[in-house]
Amino acid sequence: MEFVNSAGFARQLDEQDELKIFSDEFLKPQHNGKEMIYLCGNSLGLQPKAVQLKLTRQLANWQNLGVEGWFQGDEPWLAYHQLLKPTLAGIMGAKPAEVTVMNSLTVNLHLLLVSFYKPKGKRYKILMEGGAFPSDQYAVESQVKFHGYNYKDAVIEVMPREGEHTLRTEDIVAQIEQHADELALVMFSGINYYTGQFFDLQAITAAAHQAGAYAGFDLAHAAGNVPLQLNAWGADFAAWCSYKYMNSGPGGISGIFVHEKHHANQEFDRFAGWWGYRNDTRFKMAPGFVPEVGAEGWQVSTSPILLMAAHKAALDIFERTGGVAALRQKAIRLTAYLEFLINDINQQAGEELFKIITPKNPDERGSQLSIICKQNGKQFFDALVKNGVLGDWREPNVIRLSPVPLYNSFTDVYAAARFLAEAVHQVQF
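and the corresponding structure tokens:
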């Protein structure tokens, strides 16, 4: 599509948008009495209006049923997580038995690494992207230390080529092949939080398996954002949070994926809890842990129903849109329009004031652009906030802007770019 830098063109795109009705299902932060232009769904998604209703409903069940709420009512809590799995499986490209909801993201990564990081002999190393989100780095560091290894020796970080900001798939694969006989695990994020790069998870998985290693992923920035096919790609495991593109509340419930090929393996090491015990005999309270078949066998603690209720409110919206696949085309156009407008600012200025480091190829990014500011980046970010545009600032010089197809419009994107263009004349260089 040939874009035009005008308010009228943005309105025209909005009029043609069949998904625009869903924006009204979210509560927007206010700025000077008006709705903010919220472009920070990569960090925390907006609150669906239905969340309050879902929470109120479960609070009423708690009030009226007490402990019997686990077994009675129209949505008994004992099986409440089952209500989330079909939609979640669709978002992840998985089978319902391969996914479940539990805990928080880094806790889940640790629980999964207990099973899938099994160093033995010279095969003890973990390969991951350089510049991964710090929590992933800390989790991996503590895991290798727990097994008696040194981080610098046991962890291989794949870095971009000099002068580049993102990783080339061939370089990732080459590093896997180079260290094939040393690798126990390849663990990448689905989308790098800083650059917004969407990695080729299928190629990474294939290379890891060819090397004899497991392949696992942190999908915090990918879940609900880009199409995923975890089952078809053969990924061994994955974990994600639900509060970014899945809009399920700050610190919302996390989820995991474990491929069906591992479900029959009862010999996996795991940190067990009663909630992961096989469902049909759980209440016999017998000694000796026997895991439920599927991802549920990695569950540990009792389901936090209020967090799950908020998650269900958000997932119900995905269900009615047709899922990530239905949202993807709008996401591609929203992000491309923002890219066009930023490049137009540079053209008007006669220099590259704002360098987009997120890949240009739509297949290699989701709903996010990471923008390096040539000078005075924080001043530009503050100028956006002053005008009611909320993105995300990352030191030392990056603004992240994430137009989310569920609640952002082309007019939002146009207005944000216009305020950025106006700031060019206001910021001191």
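(Above: one complete record from the training split.) The CA atoms of residues 174 and 282 lie 46 Å apart.
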